[in-house]
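Posting for a labmate who doesn't have an account.
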Amino acid sequence: MTPTPEPTTTPPPVLVLDRLTRRYGTLTAVDDVSLRLPVGARHAVIGPNGAGKTTLLNLIAGTDRPDHGTIALDGADITRKATAGRSRLGIARSFQQPSVIAELSVLDNVVLAGWPHHPRRRGAWRRPSRYRLHKESAGRHLETVGLADLAHRPAATLSHGQRRMLDLAAALAGDPRLLLLDEPAAGLTDGDIGRLLGIIGGLPSDVAVVLVEHHVEVVAELATSVTVLAAGKVLVDGATQEVLAHPEVREAYHGTGPSAGPDGARPATIPTVCPSPTDARG
């Protein structure tokens, strides 16, 4: 008798946004945005000035609250959960301006970032044995981002690009399930961008990434899917190359749609660097 195969279960999406809306007075920064990401997704959010990209990351991370809609992580509703609670559930974030503690060493910045994720975090910082464990983990993350040789320097002495890498190492210190990156390539040299691509490309396959980025070549390299926001609304979403070639996406950046050739083909690229945000929507 042939045994009956056990039923397979599909894991819930790592992130589900359902009709998220955020208003600031008369300004609707995020307008009825829905998104569903599987475990290990590599997803980018792009858009012109004031599109709502950073506000969307704020809502996911918990630093802002929606006026309407829900957020679910691994099938659990986290819409009203505080930022610290979301962090412990596996949401980590980097910022447009690198968030480092200048007075601490490079190593201790990463140690401190990982401390809330210790199972006995109240004593983890003070006890030498646990601090050593955190130092070992932090050292590995610094090695990943190319800062191991600078571990004992004050963070205040780092360049802009090095601070960005430190911010990324701190985000990785909690072993996130969902990593939110807000313009990680901004201000980086070509060499640093190459390192950034290698770091994100080398993340475990079960770590989902949501990337807000103005360098479209970075988006094309890292993301398998893209959501385009315009004035807080989803303009288009789908597979990366299809979205980047979409006439409405090109129109959002150029102000006019692309001209099709005699065979009806559309240009496959949009500007290498998108405009930087200039208003509250991000």
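Reply:
Got it, the structure tokens are right above this. The CA atoms of residues 33 and 266 lie 28 Å apart.
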